[in-house]
Amino acid sequence: MTPDEIRARLVALQEGDLPVHGGRTLAYVYDAGLADVDALAREAVAAFAGSNGLDPTAFPSLLAMENDLVAFARELVDGPDSMVGTVTSGGTESCLLAVLGARDARPDVADPSIVVAETVHAAFHKAGHYFGVRVVVVPVGPDHRADADAMAAAIDDTTVLVVASAPSYAHGVVDPVPAIATAAAARGVRCHVDACIGGWILPYAARLGRPVTPWTFAVDGVTSISTDLHKYAYAPKGASLLLHRDPALRRPQYFAHAGWPGYTMLNATLQSTRSGGPIAGAWATTRAIGHDGYHVLTDRALAATDEIAAGITELTGLSLVAAPDSTLVAATADDDLDVFTVCDEMAERGWFVQPQLSYDGRPPSLHVAISAATDAGAFLAALGEAVASARAQGPVPVDPGVADLLRTLDPATLGDAEFDLLLAAGGLAGDAGELGLPDRMAPVNALLDVAPPALREAVLVAFLDRLARPFASGT
Question: Fewer CB near the terminus (10 Å): N or C of the chain?
């Protein structure tokens, strides 16, 4: 292909993607609305895309920028002089490393476990799966926050880490970090605060005079914090920070191996080769915006959040799950309103809102992560129209036969044949039997919503596996 053909193909491919600017994609991306900063960050990513963070002696520029990013964050998290940090590829890697480091710091524990609230991010379950760590899940209270007493009671001699959220993703509320950290410290256990989505919002919210539950290193017992640069620091994907109170706490996350004929491997993260692009992009973004700029951006995002939360409470048929502590808003629908159809209707109007399936007796909800560039008035106008349209359409029916089929499927043995049967029963198969998703996702989400979580997981794994078969069509 010629360069022009390649550029044209890239443009054509991107036409089917959600927009990353404009503040209307309210999950996955975060938009400051600063085109000049975005352009500068892309320049930085391109300039350092070929640099490799594997060896800081070979690319000292990346080490310098990484240290600058950690220093910038120190003020936000009330870090002591001893605080250290690592740039990772994203929040999930930061959380994985927090669990891995806690596990490896306790080689005396034969059956290590972590204690988490049921609202903890799925990354910690992924960490438990990857690293052979049991995940002890504690129910939350009626306010959707972690139950500190219940978490304290769950700590035992196998516990290597206790996790609190600031805020939790699903409901947007901050856990009682001081009580949780105190309980962990009393048992000599590490306490990690997952502030991946709140770490660049909550500090400026406090400066704006808003009430913020203590969650930083100012809280005794907090040993590590994760905070994402590619969320509300508005840096390019993918960059996050894992911060530790002191170097001794970080050291177990490092991996070194000299027992082979090649170079001695030394890694600070799960990756070996690390492109310098995301590090440089994050460095350029934070330098361009600065603390004063983030103060302004946070004010805009929180003002939009307040307006949207208030607007939802005034809409007949929708209810807030919880008053938002940050920029995350979740809402449930009344019985005569289908929340999945509301999400589809918002998509028809150029807004992406994220559907969340029902869980343990809790109804499904719609979820939004509001950015500084989000126009709250335009969002609420579209939401009002979407609710009215969804109410007129009524709930999405699920064929009783399909529901019965779901109950007969074993998640452990779900293969191609069972998945094809499910596609056909749900009307999702194309003319040749291939995957043929409809333009509207409400029927798919309604179908998944009647399945238990284990089957949802199996179906979605089969779905992803089917999508990632480049030669299935013979082209």
Answer: C
How would you classify residue 262: left for phi > 0, otherwise alpha for psi between -120 and 50, otherwise beta? beta
Pairwise CA distance, residues 85 & 222, whole Å = 14
Domain containing 102 equals 35-287
Residues in the chain: 475
pLDDT tens series, the chain, 475 aa: 999 999 999 999 999 899 999 999 999 999 999 999 999 999 999 999 999 999 999 999 999 999 999 999 999 999 999 999 999 999 999 999 999 999 999 999 999 999 999 999 999 999 999 999 999 999 999 999 999 999 999 999 999 999 999 999 999 999 999 999 999 999 999 999 999 999 999 999 999 999 999 999 999 999 999 999 999 999 999 999 999 999 999 999 999 999 999 999 999 999 999 999 999 999 999 999 999 999 999 999 999 999 999 999 999 999 999 999 999 999 999 988 999 999 999 999 999 999 999 998 899 999 999 999 999 999 999 999 999 999 999 888 888 887 887 778 888 888 888 777 777 766 666 555 566 666 788 888 888 888 888 888 888 888 888 777 777 554 4
The tokens for 245 are 């109170």
Instruction: Identify the residue whose tokens are 């999950």.
Output: 27
Nearest to 456 by CA among 367, 349, 355, 341: 355
Same domain (yes/no): 163, 276: yes
Three-state DSSP class for residue 151: helix
**Is 472 contained in some domain?**
no
Asked if residue 329 is part of any domain, the answer here is yes
How far from the centroid of its chain's Cα atoms is residue 130's Cα?
18
SS3 assignment, position 160 = strand
97 CB contacts (<8 Å, ≥6 apart)?
86, 88, 242, 253, 269, 270
Q: 180 and 157, same structural domain? A: yes
Q: Which helix (H) or strand (E) holds 343?
A: helix 339-348
Take residue 330 and report the two structure tokens written for it.
């979740």
DSSP 3-state of 445: helix
What whole-number distance in Å separates Cα of residue 242 and Cα of residue 225? 6
Report the C-alpha gap between 196 and 109 in whole angstroms.
Answer: 28
Q: Is 402 exposed, middle or buried (0-12, 13-18, 19+ CB in 10 A)?
A: middle
